[in-house]
Structure formats: structure tokens, C-alpha cells
Amino acid sequence: MTTSRVDTVAVCRPAGPAKPRILLITSEPASHSLITAALTTAGYAVECAATGNDGLQRACERDYRLVLLDLAGPGAAPDLDGRTVLKGLLTARPELAVLVLSSLADVTAKVEFLELGAQDYVTKPFALDELVARVRVQLRGSAHRRGEVIRTGGLTLDLGRLQADSGHGPVPLTRLEFLLLRELMEHPGQSVPKGRLLASIWGYDFDPHSNVVDVCVRRLRTKLGFELIKTVRGEGYQLTPHQPGIQ
To answer: Which homologous superfamily is 21-141 in?
Structure first.
């Protein structure tokens, strides 16, 4: 992590009514202080949990817009493995956005946590400005209107509940799955380039060779049916929902 000077005193404080509330799960004092200070300065209300169990309890009891899960190695969440914490968070609240912070830079680790449902994976060391930008992207994507539903063919997407129904009942989606599916639904029958999906959903420069889009598409196919999203070789992905009454 880039240890640039931060003048704001890092204090975990209750969220004000107008501030998006973020939960930071870490037991590393340096991460706690720097991240909390940067996000507080950016206008967010940050609450902290030093253990995985404490983080899970807080996430179930309070209304957070985002969770930052710091996988800092031994001592970060000493009671529970990071994978267990992530699974627990998304089992209790599948609509919750979770951003993983980790010193593990290998592709295997990134793919594993993205497949488990993390919305983003930030590799250490990172600049605090970059982290704040990624947090903004995730919170922007979570601003959905309750009760609004969009439809494409036989597919419906509930913008408030983050659920999709391809004709077999509602299926809960992670926030990243939701954003990707919504982007494809806004261009039915059209091939959406992978680069466009990266730029639209992540909102910042991302490695064009990254497979995070492929991982998310694979999860959506598993949940909603393999035929729902077509791979257009050399171009991108295309939504192909069936029409009601047509088999």
C-alpha cells in the first residue's frame, strides 16, 4: 500500500444519515488507519471489525453499502479464513458488495475470490486514491431504485432486490453479476465488446487481458442457463433471452 501522508485522524465512527456506510474488516493497524482516513476524507462513514466473526455479525445487523475485506495474511482475520468470511457475508446478504484487498497477486487467487462472489480484487501495494476510486465505482453501481424491474424477452431483472428470473423463478445475483447482466440487457441481440463491459462496470482502466468478465459470465450462465449469454468470438458477449411462450 502506498503510504502517502494523510492528515485526517483515522477514527472509526458511526455513519451519519447522509453518508454511505462502509465496513472495513482488518486487524492490521496500518491498513485500519490509512484506509479509514482516506475514506472518511472522501465523505464515507467507516466502521471497523478486527476479526472475521465480528465482521460477519456487523454485516448482518447493520446496513452497509460496501465491505472491504483485507486479506493481510496471518492476523488479518485470525478467527476465520478470508474465503469463509466472504462466503458468510454473501450467504447472509447476497446483494452486498465486497471488495477484497490482498497481497496475493497471482491470477489463481484473483479468479478464486471473484468466482466466490467478490465484486473487486485490489492487489497490494495500492495507492489510496485508486482504492477510493474503486469504492466510488462499487457504490455508484449499488444505487438502484426499489421496485423497478426491466424486461428483455423472457428475462426480468429486479433492480431493487438484485434478482433475475429467466423463467424458472427469481435467482439472487451478486452486485457484479447484476451490473453485467443489466449492461447486456440494455443491448439485447447486440454483441457487447469485452472492453466496453470492463469500462462500463468497473469504471476505471483495467487490464484488457483480464478474465474477470469471463468469470462473471460463467457464473451468470450457471445461475440462469447456459444459452442465455452467447459468446461472439473476437467481439464480446450477446444476450439471447427466449421469448415468452417460445421454446
So the answer is: Response regulator (3.40.50.2300)
Looking at CATH, the fold of the domain delimited by 149-239 is given as Arc Repressor Mutant, subunit A (1.10.10)
* Overall average pLDDT of the 23-29 stretch: 89
Span 94-126, pLDDT tens digits:
778 899 999 888 878 887 888 788 888 898 888
The H-assigned helical ranges of the chain are 29-41, 52-61, 82-92, 107-116, 128-141, 175-185, 194-202, 212-224
Please tell me the distance from the alpha carbon of residue 52 to that of residue 60, in angstroms, as a whole number: 12
Grid coordinates representing 45 are: 462513514
Task: Enumerate the β-bridge partners of residue 150.
Answer: 157
Q: What is the pLDDT of residues 64-80, one digit of tens each?
A: 989 999 986 544 445 67
- Cell triple for 65: 453499502
**3-state class (DSSP) for residue 156:** strand
> Can you give the pTM of this predicted structure?
0.62
How many other CB atoms are there within 10 angstroms of residue 148's CB atom? 10
For the record, the C-alpha cell of 190 comes out as 447486440
| Cβ pair 144, 65 in contact under 8 A | no
Instruction: Decide: helix, strand or coil at residue 52.
Output: helix
* Cell numbers found for residue 226: 447456459
Name the CA dihedral angle for 224, 225, 226, 227, rounded to a multiple of 10 degrees.
Answer: -110
- Domain boundaries along the sequence of the chain: 21-141, 149-239
Edge-to-edge strand ranges of the sheet holding 229-232: 191-193, 236-239, 229-232
CA-to-CA distance for 177 and 166, rounded, in angstroms? 14
Confidence of residue 146 (pLDDT cuts 50, 70, 90): very low
Residues forming a β-bridge with 165: 156
